[in-house]
Structure formats: C-alpha cells, structure tokens
Design a protein that fits this description.
Elements (H helix, E strand, L loop, with lengths): L20 E5 L9 H16 L5 E4 L13 H10 L5 E8 L5 H14 L4 E6 L6 H6 L10 H13 L18 E5 L2 H10 L3 E3 L8 H11 L15 E9 L3 H19 L8 H7 L3 H9 L3 E4 L1 H15 L3 E6 L4 H10 L7
Helix pairs in contact: 3-5, 6-7, 8-9, 8-10
Pfam family, one: Bac_luciferase
Enzyme class: oxidoreductase
Protein name: LLM class flavin-dependent oxidoreductase
C-alpha cells in the first residue's frame, strides 16, 4: 500500500515544520513485549524528545487493554519528568468522568509543585475503557453528563478556591494548564465557551475534524488568565505518523497497524487470526479502519514532514501532536528521531 491518505497529501519535496511538534504516547505493548519493556521504550522516547525540540509528551488514559500500558497517566508523567529536564509532560488525557475533580487536582497539583511550569492536563469525557471498567472504577455512564461542571470545578481547585468546603492541597494556586480533548463538536464548544486550548483526536477519529476546529475558532470566548491577561484560541491537532528511510517499509507498517486494528475492533467474540484480519482489509471493516487512520502521515521522512506541514496549514493548527504507530520498534523510535524538530545534542 503506497497511496497517501486523502487528508495528508504528499507534496513533491520535504519542508521544515512550521508549527511545534509534540508526541502522544500510549505506552503500547508491542508483540513479544512485557509492560516493563513498553515503559522502558516510553522512557527512552521521553529522554530523546527532551533534547530534540519536541514541545510536550502526553500520556492517554486507557483501561482493560492488554496492548496499552498508560492506564495511570499521572504515574507516567512523574516517572518521565524525573528522567527529563525541559519537555512539558501531561495527560492527553485524563478521562475526567472516571475521577473526582479533587483527586485530579491533588495529583496534578503535586506534579506541578515538583516540576514547575512543565505539567499539562488534557481532559476528556470518554470512559477510556469498556462498561466493565466503568463499573470497576465505581463510576456510572451518567458521570459523563457532569463533564463541563467537573472541568469548572477543577479550574476552581487549581485557582485556590475552596469547593464544597475543601481546598486542594497540593493543587491550590498551581494553575495547571487545562486542555479540552475531543473528537466531536461537544468538546470544541466547551473549549470555546471556557476559553481553553482544544486538542482534536484526529489520529483515530477524524470524521468531525473540520467542523469541530472551525467551530472552536469561530466561537472562542477569551477567559481571564492568572497573570491578568486573556486567553487566546490554541488549537492542537493529532496525526498518526510512520517515517522510515525506506518508504515501502513505512507503508508496510501502516498495513500491519490496520490489521491489528481490525483484529481489535472485529474479533467477533474470539481472536481473529492475522490471515482472517487480512481478508477483511478490502471489505467494509477495512474501509472503517482506513477512515480511522485517514490523518496518517506515512512515508520517507521528507514526505512525512511535508504531509504534516500541509495538514497544519489546512487545519489552522497551532501545534501538531504526533502519535507514532509502527509495531516494529526500530521504525517506531526511528519515526520520532527522523521527525525531531531539532538535531540531537
């Protein structure tokens, strides 16, 4: 498969990135790896990104998924912060319906006190897992309905306000930067109404990308900042990336990723074999996965950089957050190396 995606057109030559690059790390457990192996790879990536110009790394909360080891983003942030010195670190995101705002304020407030001016907090309203996970977390699906109010409550804790007779300590006065995450118009509307930065999850759910980003920029209402100024719109857009000096190898890794996605989504109550998943690539299931990965920049490094530059311009993004996808660890880490904004020091 060597065709480029509809959204990420490959210009004739490479280009220098015009917006900051960041990384989204799911702490993916690769084939034949243990969770410890995956976390070691994540630390290696954080250490590299810290010295090569990446703006931030975010860790996404997922539960009950054997191939993803990022169930506890705050723990990962603490570990990676201890092994780095510059790069911003945060959740991309915390699924707020799974937690009380106070608990999150205390966790990320503690991190902000330990690592000043380096901690972000992205917030989503999805459960980050299946219904069984929601039950195990002692939550109910109705918790998602309180997401806007919970975001405001979290803001108040970070501002130092006493809420329900409780003050977040640590947390009060840290003003941890909040970002609203989403893949629908809901998150865009909320971010615009609260005057917060917005990050769109186009790396796996690009369907509403254009509508959501346009709505956010059109309806943004400035909010007061701790320094006395006002917030401005800040748009982050996510893209899946696979870069290799051998473009065919990069595309083969995309094919492997699509097969894995089919096996995850369409297991029909049992484990699909690779051969069975391959047979579905050219059917409706494959088309669904193609759509999920529509915002994928794949190929040789100069091609990928050109695709990403085109994508940032088209979406009016202030920052791109890149999600390396390759199953092959050499290609996975190589992608991060080859797209690094600054040379290795």
């Amino acid at each position: 498969m060597t065709d480029s995606s509809p959204d990420l057109v490959v210009p004739d030559s490479g280009t220098t990135p015009r917006v900051p690059f960041s990384l989204l790390d799911l702490a993916q457990v690769g084939s034949g790896e243990t969770v410890r192996d995956a976390l070691t790879h994540s630390r290696r990536m954080a250490e590299f990104a810290d010295t090569t110009g990446y703006e931030r790394i975010w860790y996404a909360e997922h539960h009950n998924m054997p191939t993803i080891a990022s169930a506890a983003p705050a723990v990962l942030v603490a570990h990676m912060a201890a092994h780095t010195s510059r790069i911003r670190l945060g959740a991309g995101g915390v699924m707020l319906p799974n937690h009380s705002p106070l608990a999150i304020a205390e966790q990320y407030g503690t991190l902000a006190e330990l690592y000043p001016d380096r901690i972000d907090l992205g917030l989503g309203r999805a459960p980050g897992g299946d219904p069984a996970t929601f039950s195990a977390l002692r939550r109910t699906p109705a918790a998602s309905e309180h997401f806007p109010a919970d975001v405001v409550e979290l803001q108040r804790y970070f501002a130092g306000t006493t809420v329900h007779g409780v003050r977040a300590v640590p947390g009060a006065g840290t003003h941890v930067p909040l970002y609203i995450l989403g893949s629908s118009l809901f998150g865009a509307q909320l971010a615009a109404a609260l005057g917060l930065p917005y990050a769109f999850a186009s790396h796996f759910a690009p369907q509403a990308l254009d509508q959501a980003t346009s709505l956010y920029l059109r309806e943004f209402r400035p909010a007061a900042l701790p320094d006395g100024g006002e917030s401005e719109p800040y748009l982050m857009v996510a893209a899946t990336v696979i870069a290799d000096d051998d473009a065919e190898r990069a595309y083969e890794q995309l094919r492997v990723a699509k097969i894995q996605r089919i096996k995850f989504l369409f297991n029909r109550g049992r484990n699909l074999t690779t051969a069975e998943a391959e047979m579905l690539l050219d059917g409706p299931q494959g088309a669904q996965v193609d759509e999920m990965l529509r915002c994928a920049a794949v190929g040789a490094p100069d091609q990928v950089l050109a695709q990403l530059d085109d994508f940032a311009q088209r979406t009016r993004a202030d920052e791109l957050i890149l999600a390396p996808l390759a199953n092959d660890r050499e290609v996975w880490f190589g992608t991060v190396e080859k797209l690094a904004p600054a040379p290795v020091r």
